[in-house]
What we know:
CATH class of the largest domain: Alpha Beta
Protein name: PAS domain-containing protein
Domain GGDEF: 277-407
Organism: Marinomonas colpomeniae
Domain PAC: 192-245
Structural class: alpha+beta
InterPro entries: Biofilm_reg_signaling (IPR052155), GGDEF_dom (IPR000160), Nucleotide_cyclase (IPR029787), PAS (IPR000014), PAS-assoc_C (IPR000700), PAS-like_dom_sf (IPR035965), PAS_fold_3 (IPR013655), Rev_trsase/Diguanyl_cyclase (IPR043128)
Strand content: 25-35%
Amino acid sequence: MNTPFKLAFKHMPTPAFIIESSTGKLLSYNRTFEGLFDKFHAKPALAWDTLCEDAATSANWQTLNEAIKTKQIDRCESLIRVGDKLINMQLELQHLGESVLVCVYDTDHMDLSAAENTLLKFALTESSAGLWIWETDSDLVSCSKSIATLLGCATNQTPRSTPEWHVRVHPDDVKRLDSLVNEHITHNQDYYEVEYRIQKDDQTYLWVKERGRTYTKNTDGSIKKVIGFVVDISHQKALEEHLRSQATFDELTGLLTRGAALTHFKKQLGLAKRQYTPLTMAKIHLDSNNRLTALPMNERNIAIQTSSRYIYKKIREADVLARVEDDKLLLLLPNTSVRDAKTLLNHIINPKDDEEKVLEEGHSNASDFCIGIATFPEDGESIEELALSANQAVEEGQAKQQKIVVN
């Protein structure tokens, strides 16, 4: 450690220590970290397995060190031994080659209300959004005041556990919500997004969008805390329902026709402009390999119908799908970034085994799909401009034999 870095490390206000990668021994710690122990008339342990309550042997450090090195873990929580006490701390971990820098945050007394102040509190209030933190081990849910406002209840009556939260969720939506959150935990994912209905204290239901993200992990890499938001999207859902009731459908596919879609798309674009939310358009070519043109008309129609139904089942309830040409579809993704759109579209071009079988039975194949993406406002400020940009992306993808192209 060079002299300037050593001095900066010793005097940094955040408690921190450095561990030798190969052995798990504590090489150094700063004054602030030592001060935590001074309060209890104790000295920091000499190695990770004696400092950390969760580490039974030195092998635990090697497992954690490898996870830090491969960036599987950059933040975790653990019980740290301070004298004869155990203090739950959040650890920020950075691999430095032969050593690991660990910055320490005491989380025993995390106060959610502290997160809802000044600008954040204003933003949450104005956007009708609510903040929550979920501790997976204890199933403790901590809700912000904004969630109490959203649900029309007192702060001390907000859900405090998963069962209490599920009691408020519409019976038709509980299984889907529970399955998606369990998948997030089981597969150790970074984030998830889901829409569902939740009951207010006046017995009415709100449509909300929930976005959850992994906040901290345990030293074994499992998810310890998830933080997220719920946002009221009832007005958006009401608009979608109105659009569906006014729709004109294509006879072969059951999708919106080009004319009907134009009206729907313009309303969604207007909503995105007023609310400053992202909007993504995708042009889907169902026959980019020109395979369908060689089929008899009846089989070709079955293939287009099969592909359209498959794609419709893969999109979200808020999305709008239309057939705008014989073998081309136009998909509008409200409140969706390019990154999220690519995630959704990758699920479309990569069907599961059972989905692939259904496609084959209907003379269809996902390998024939080519998708061009355009986004508002970068690629246009009108539906016509966005459609043109998406079409240009499709043509580029077809020429370069790429499945998804962002304009």
